Amino acid sequence: LASRLPQVGTTIFTVMSTLAAEHGAVNLGQGFPDFGCDPALLDAVDGAMRAGHNQYPPMTGVPALRQAMADKVQALYGRRYHPDTEITVTAGATQAILTAILAVVHPGDEVIVLEPCYDSYVPNIELAGGRVVRVPLVPGSFRPDFDAIAAAITPRTRALIVNTPHNPSGMCWTDAEMRRLDELLAPTDIVLISDEVYEHMVFDGLPHHSAARYPGLAARAFIVSSFGKTYHVTGWKVGTVLAPAPLTAEFRKVHQFNVFTVNTPMQHALAAYMADPAPYRDLPAFYQRKRDLFRQGLAKTRFRLLPGEGTYFQCVDISALAVPERELPEADFCRWLTAEIGVAAIPLSAFYGDGFDQKVVRFCFAKKDETLVAALERLQRL
Ligand code: PMP
Ligand code: GLN
Fold first, then answer.
1. Does any ligand 1 atom lie closer than 6 A to the CB of residue 231?
2. What CA–CA distance (Å, rounded) separates 171 from 214?
3. Is 7 contained in some domain?
4. How many independent structural domains does the chain possess?
5. Is the minimum distance from the CB of 197 to ligand 1 under 6 angstroms?
């Protein structure tokens, strides 16, 4: 059988979580919280199920959830998306991104990704028959290089994928960078896929510059969000896509034959829960405290901290560690760290097509304080 994805193995997140479980390691690899969500959200699911919300919802998503999303986006980013024609509920951001790509990318079209990038983007483009055009973020700072992006644009460029706050680096695009992107794309018909799943994890008082804030970008964008990240329920797999009506219409053509609908009771529960802005309003402070705890602990080790403005990830350089394993390729180092030191991490090389190895690994700090402390005790030995 000829593989549709010959270069693809099992995702690094699954590989590292499996390895962490085998070795009983503290799992700071795959990004997910090790603490529960608000019990009120669980009660809302229970209530929704008992109220009989257990059959197919509308293909586009439960109306109350699309309405709640429209109200929230208007309040936060100042743009009104019509719940009926411009908002679709998806099975997490993963399905949203694949569906957006399948909806707009024709075989032979070029899609620009900014490396390092989330591991699903490239296989998604390949499944659509698109050609992946990789543009590096500036090494070290992970900021966008607009000259390089401009140079990568051709008449075949169909889409560009931007992720802010950025997994794995934690960097957040500035207002000036979003404006620059707007100017760059203005003379083109390039579709923007704006992956904003970490929109509520931005620290030090920085705002999140959603593409929704910029009329020129919003007019060409699929904006992707994920309730899994925002409400500590990554296993629920519920997200949304905002896009102007013509893009949403194309999106839904694919969506209806992909998942058709997303589970009903969770949508009702999320809609009810969203009435209170406190959970997402308080999220930056909640995660900033964990980031600071983790960074302060790492500052006492030989790991060199990279800056982190957002997300629940912290990248570190391993090249000054006192152990010879610091010379290993990042992926081997992470396997060693998991098996021998008992802390799982993700190699940054997994986010590059050519496996670029810069001796940087990513830790997830969406963990109970005691989990972070246990990991730090082990990391301090290096
Ligand atoms: N995009 C990025 C940048 C992510 O980090 C993740 C979560 N790992 C996703 C998309 C997928 O989100 P979801 O779990 O909602 O499918
Ligand atoms: N997005 C999460 C991460 O980067 C993991 C999601 C997944 O396992 N696919 O760690």
1. no
2. 19
3. no
4. 2
5. yes
How many angstroms is it from 119 CA to the middle of ligand 2? 8
Domain extent, residue 200, equals 39-276
Q: Is 128 found in the same domain as 271?
A: yes
Output the residue whose Cα is nearest ligand 2's atom 9. Answer: 13
Q: Sign (positive/negative) of CA torsion 329, 332, 337, 340?
A: negative
Ligand 1 close to Cβ of residue 93 (< 6 A): yes
Q: What pTM was estimated for this model as a whole?
A: 0.98
Would you call the peptide bond into 187 cis, given omega within 30 degrees of 0 as the criterion? no
What distance in angstroms lies between residue 197's CA and the mean position of ligand 1's atoms? Answer: 6
Residue 242 resides in a domain = yes
HSE of 13, CA atoms in CB hemisphere, 13 A = 10
pLDDT in tens, the chain (382 residues): 999 999 899 999 999 999 999 999 999 999 999 999 999 999 999 999 999 999 999 999 999 999 999 999 999 999 999 999 999 999 999 999 999 999 999 999 999 999 999 999 999 999 999 999 999 999 999 999 999 999 999 999 999 999 999 999 999 999 999 999 999 999 999 999 999 999 999 999 999 999 999 999 999 999 999 999 999 999 999 999 999 999 999 999 999 999 999 999 999 999 999 999 999 999 999 999 999 999 999 999 999 999 999 999 999 999 999 999 999 999 999 999 999 999 999 999 999 999 999 999 999 999 999 999 999 999 999 9
Q: Ligand 1 in contact with 168 (CB < 6 A)? A: no
Instruction: Cite the DSSP H helix spans in 28-120.
Output: 39-50, 63-77, 92-104
Q: Tell me 338's DSSP state.
A: I
Would 3 be classed as within a structural domain?
no
CATH code, domain carrying 250 = 3.40.640.10
What is the CATH number for 308? 3.90.1150.10
Is residue 319 a part of any domain in this protein?
yes
Last residue of a domain, one of 276, 310, 336: 276
